[in-house]
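Form 12-C: Joint structure prediction
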Amino acid sequence: MKLSRGARDAAIAFGIIVVFGSLAMMLAGVNPIDGFTALMIGALGNVPETAETLVQTTSLLFPALGIAVAFRAGLFNIGAEGQLLIGGLLAGVIGERFIAPGIIAIPVLLLAGAVGGGFWGALAGWLRARFAANEVIATLMLNYVAIQVAAYAITGPLKSATGAGNETGELPPSAWLPTILPDTRLTIALVLALALALFLRWMLRSTVIGYQLRAVGDAPRTAQRAGIDLAKMRFWTMAFSGAIAGFGGATIVLGVLHRFNLALSPGYGFIGIAVALVGELDPLWVTVAAFVFGILQNGAIGMQAAANVPRDVVTAIEGLIILVLAGRRIITRSGAD
Amino acid sequence: MIAFLWLMLVKSAPLVYAALGGVLCERSGVLNIGLEGMIAIGAFSGVAISFATGSAILGAIGGVASGALLGAILGIAATRFRVEQIVAGTGINLIALGGAAYGLVIVFGQPGASKEVNALGPTGEIAMVCLALALAGLLHVFLYWTRAGLHVRACGENPRAADVAGINPLRVRFWATTAGGAIAALGGVFLAMAELDLYSDGMSAGRGFIALAAVIFGRWNPLGAAAAALFFGAFEALQFTLQRTGIPVEFMQALPYVAALIALAGFAGRARAPAADGVPYRR
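Section 2 - Result
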């Protein structure tokens, strides 16, 4: 039942990609077969491109997993973009000043990212729990506050000697994440993301806390009658969700850019919503979906170069997938309680 | 002083339009996160149609129509399919922003920015500033003084009761969202065709979210939302002046969002959304 429903969502997403992708390619005067070929070659044509696709997969997977957890609890966290940014910011500004062997620096900085993102998510959770503020609007607004906070931090009080404009200085190489494939940007972040997905699947399915989290999302009133503190659960879920996104931001800083940059995310926090929805909010399928979207993200660059189809069409298609899947029954509102 | 006031009005006008569009949607019970996309699509379509036809007026009409179309899509999704509106609105934004960037290359053959097109000019700019202010008053009169406006508000507060009274909440929400999309797109038309004469990537620059903040800060009320938009616009106009006083520019840019958060949290008087805002209605 669950699987077949998931397969149906995947089929819908696949259909949208093929139909609207073809339309967009034809409008650009390109044969869709050539266009999709260019996309696939751009994404998986050789080892470096495949590695880059997996880098994109990793960067999408963290926020998508955070979003999936929050959605499971009926909390529409659309603030992953800001949480990811704050996580990256902390990892970046601490990382460029923190001289320590990698075995210490890397865990500390990744944790700093999780703390930063967790704090940013908790802020929305706190507004909801303390003031009954709509957490969705709060997370959305906090995205834009995050950009300004980060811009202020790296140009003002935390400006580094070597950083310029909208980025910090480079992190010492000891803090860089070890690569899996030499001469690529593919690092152990991928392994960490996969491990996290497995952990979350286990947590949601087999632990008491995971059961409670789902109960708060599926049937808040019943959960409350069963003795679950809704406000507390929502607060910690938002913090946890933000921490996952923030951790992801830190892996981009430590593994991909080796510095914090204000533009470190081309919208991973928003595209992550599509990834989470296509993956039916199940960490295992979210991982598969992240790979598909990683192909789209990276393949679009090759498609633009080889077939002259503007890569932005991928963004529009991702938006369309979100719009269509926003009506699926897995999304239930926690509503009034 | 006059120069500053004018600059403030110019900076505020797109926010006023988008905020008014947002108020209309939310009053009917549809939470519209897609304002940003509606601004962008209005700006892009206006410029593209002006480029194709050579007529600025046709371009402006086309821009508004594209916003109405996007609003109608959100309206159908929110009524017929009862989607989670916040998630759907995020989708609308990606569709519009990605679509406009793609369209730039298709229509103008170049990424980044369009060519200069026939635009509305200084007269059009003055007219559109006046229209923005007038629209705030008109929407207020519509929502609070007319029968149709009462129906819209009823659907946003208690759609079940409205339904029992013979109003179809789904139809009202659909039309309110469509009209709201058209009004928000006027903000895009203003940006691209009154203030400037071209579309450039990222032109909406978060204005849809500032407008959303204005809706909240203005207590879901047309005059309040317009006042909030003018307030935020004044800060944008003051940015260069205030920068010289040493206040970091980031503080001012974060201000609308922080103000909305404060309003949401209920400091300085509680901001209460329409009771059924964002809640799908099942007949």
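Section 3 - Comments
DSSP finds eleven helices and no strands in chain B. Chain B has a mean pLDDT of 91.
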